Amino acid sequence: MQDKYSPADVEKAAQSHWKAIDAYKAVEHDPRFPKGKYYACSMLPYPSGKLHMGHVRNYTINDVMYRYLRMNGYNVLMPMGWDAFGMPAENAAMANNVPPAQWTYSNIAHMREQMESMGLAIDWSREMTACKPEYYKWNQWMFLKMLEKGIIYKKTGTVNWDPVDQTVLANEQVVDGRGWRSGALIEKREIPMYYARITDYADELLAYVDDKLPGWPERVRTMQTNWIGKSTGVRFAFPHQIKDADGQLIQDGKMYVFTTRPDTIMGVTFAAVAAEHPLAIHAARTNPALAAFNAECKLGSVIEADMATMEKKGMPTGLFVTHPLTGEQVEVWVGNYVLITYGDGAVMGVPAHDERDFAFAKKYDLPIKQVITAEGKEFSTDGWQEWYGDKDISIVTNSGKYDGLRYAEAVDAVAADMEAKGLGEKKITFRLRDWGISRQRYWGTPIPMIHCGDCGVVPVPEKDLPVVLPEDCVPDGTGNPLNKYEAFLKCDCPQCGKPARRETDTMDTFVDSSWYYMRYTSPGADKAMVDERNDYWMPMDQYIGGIEHAVMHLLYARFWTKIMRDFGLVKFDEPFTNLLTQGMVLNETYYREDAAGKKTWFNPADVDLTLDDKGRPQGAVSKADGQAVNIGGTEKMSKSKNNGIDPAAQIGEYGADTARLFTMFASPPEQTLEWSGSGVEGANRFLRRVWAFGYAQREAIAAAGSPLTAAASSDAGKTLRRELHKVLQQADYDIKRIQYNTVVSACMKMLNTLESAKDADAASLSEGYAIFLRLLNPVAPHITHVLWEELGYAKAHGDILNAPWPQVDPAALEQSEIEMMIQVNGKLRGSVVVAKGADKASIEAAALANEAVQKFIEGTPKKIIVVPGKLINIVV
Ligand code: ANZ
Ligand code: ZN
């Protein structure tokens, strides 16, 4: 055994041992694990080239869970794969002139090595790679099935078109309305795309987040609920006689609106439509100013959060519709806050009770008519007040027959009247839109469709799957290279056999991530996307990933699962039983600012801090030139702030166990984690102490036969056992609830206790160190593996990997002595240590003999009351 801790040697030894015994291969129904399966999985990484600290944290949490559960008898699965399709590969390809495939595969190889150096318990035999045909074939298969069942359909959608580069751009490639490469003004184009009917599942998706996913964080459930955005209200029409150029009534003479507040219908003073609404388009034909305004609205954001905060603008159309209940004429405006994609793209304007309408009416001097009141409230048009829109306390007023009704009653009454007139009814509206899955990009799953001059658009027959994506294209920024790739394009029509052309759009990469975690369960399955092994592992017991995926990825994955269920491929409703969203990794930022205000960011590794005598940072200088840099505050590690810490460099310097220990210790998994160089050094110092203790005790422990349990024969042994089992009890509770930071602090306490118990008997020491090593093992698997071997535990009991989780021994917790408080006339005056189980007489004698207490006693006390185990009250 080496006398000094050498992480490089230790980690190499442990990792090659695991490799040799194929330690992490998970087998269904493995008889070694009586507690059954546990599927713990991290969100799959994009193969960007190297691991970042967010990955390290995510996978370490997963790995700690794995090792802990395995020692507790569970058959645990921890798989890994690659979200290998997507735009960054195309961008990198353009920058380096290599095909995305080549860039992606070499990144994967590199990142896999980095993961291996972390000592993760990954079953690599289940690795999946989204850009491999054996995987994406099943995306295509599902696409065809969904198309056949009408769950996927085609309609025109709006895309960003760059007229210079002649290409469709993703939203993030549009910067201030211009193409990111060409700088050209972006146009909106309508092109045919495929959509998946996720809205058909909106109710079920909502019902489950509401109350059937107790293992999910409240916050994520709320985010999903808001994204689905269910609103209950009334959809009704304002009749009109407005005719288009051909003399046809526009929309059959009915302008429909959706409202959640039909109880305010008598307060309507205007109507507003989106710029894309047929009435807006009609009015713009003869009104150039309105046409210009409509164009401006269309350029604006379509993000709903922006809608709430942006300035409300509008313009009258000069058109009027009829109020369905009063018969009054209502003027139609175009409003920039009305979304064409929500409801009917038109709203009834009730300025008195809707905050947006209020702002709009104030700005354009439209009438404001109060139709809602509430107990003890005064209405004034001077400024908006919260209660104007509060339906929980509302009472209808100024509304004729509806006066005095509460919200729910008023909704029913108005809905009934609309229904009687044939103009409307109650309706549920969702904010959720169908999922557009077409992307006009090369690096993705080819959509398996064929365009034939005679037959139209024809699905690829199932037997011809997969449609293989060529891997040798280099995109050049001028659109999808598949459009010029003859060998890919050319095919025969499956229906008539004539020469035809393949679809060149590919699928949104959210398709890949919607079911990869099920492919892990069934590697190599070639008859179906998953096989019976999936029934064993799924649903997943614990999913771990970033909060940034709380909405879209999780929603699409849940939707996809429900489709698979409806196709009879799986038997469960929800894929992820428990969800953990880990916090972000933060680090200090450093910068210099030039005269023009442009900031240059310095990596923390290239900066020296000057500290004051309390160790607080006073200032910072660049290591390169010794000149001052500004301290910019703690922020999420990112390229843009150059404050990332390279895990590979950390592992090289301190070893993987230090990096793991630091990230687990620095904060609980769900909280943000602040990087700290001195924290890392502290973690490393601790591991050196762990080694030193093992080295010092190696002979004593081996000589005792490396027992895992002891019945202490010495007093020092008893004290040691009591201390360690007490800490173990708390740590055991913490590790179960994924509070890994306090598990590490428990390890630190245990080592202190062990170090100060040199007099304890060898068996107690052996037991104690074995408890300690097993508790530390999930967090620092390498050093504990090697120490377990070096101290003879492996020889006596097998690998630490398979060792039983340490159990609290209730006998060890029992105290042989207890401390009792002493009161004189009810006032606390001192305390005394007595033997546990001591009789009343000896307790009384001990209390009376206590010096601190004697000062308060004269003569014989009147009475002595003993509360066993706690307190002695002397009455004088
Ligand atoms: C009149 C009204 C009065 C409204 C009132 C609210 C309060 P949620 O709850 O988010 O579903 N609305 C309807 N369609 C719209 C569209 N295409 N673009 C922008 N806003 C639209 O919101 C429903 C409310 O949003 C509807 O109820 C409507 O305004 C507006 F005191 O109708 B309300
Ligand atoms: Zn044909």
Automatic annotation (TrEMBL):
Signal peptide start and end residues: none
Pfam family, one: Anticodon_1
UniProt subcellular location: Cytoplasm
Catalytic activity, reaction form: tRNA(Leu) + L-leucine + ATP = L-leucyl-tRNA(Leu) + AMP + diphosphate
Binding sites annotated in the UniProt record for ATP: K639
One GO MF term: leucine-tRNA ligase activity
Main location: cytoplasm
Annotated ranges, domain Methionyl/Leucyl tRNA synthetase: 41-174
Domain Methionyl/Valyl/Leucyl/Isoleucyl-tRNA synthetase anticodon-binding: 718-839
Motif ('HIGH' region): 45-55
Enzyme class of the recorded protein, top EC level: ligase
All copies of domain Aminoacyl-tRNA synthetase class Ia, residue ranges: 432-588
InterPro entries: aa-tRNA-synth_I_CS, aa-tRNA-synth_Ia, Leu-tRNA-ligase, Leu_tRNA-synth_edit, M/V/L/I-tRNA-synth_anticd-bd, Methionyl/Leucyl_tRNA_Synth, Rossmann-like_a/b/a_fold, tRNAsynth_Ia_anticodon-bd
EC number per UniProt: 6.1.1.4
Keyword annotations of the record: Aminoacyl-tRNA synthetase, ATP-binding, Cytoplasm, Ligase, Nucleotide-binding, Protein biosynthesis
Domain Leucyl-tRNA synthetase editing as annotated: residue spans: 226-418
Motif ('KMSKS' region): 636-640
Entry similarity comment: Belongs to the class-I aminoacyl-tRNA synthetase family.
Protein name from the UniProt record: Leucine--tRNA ligase
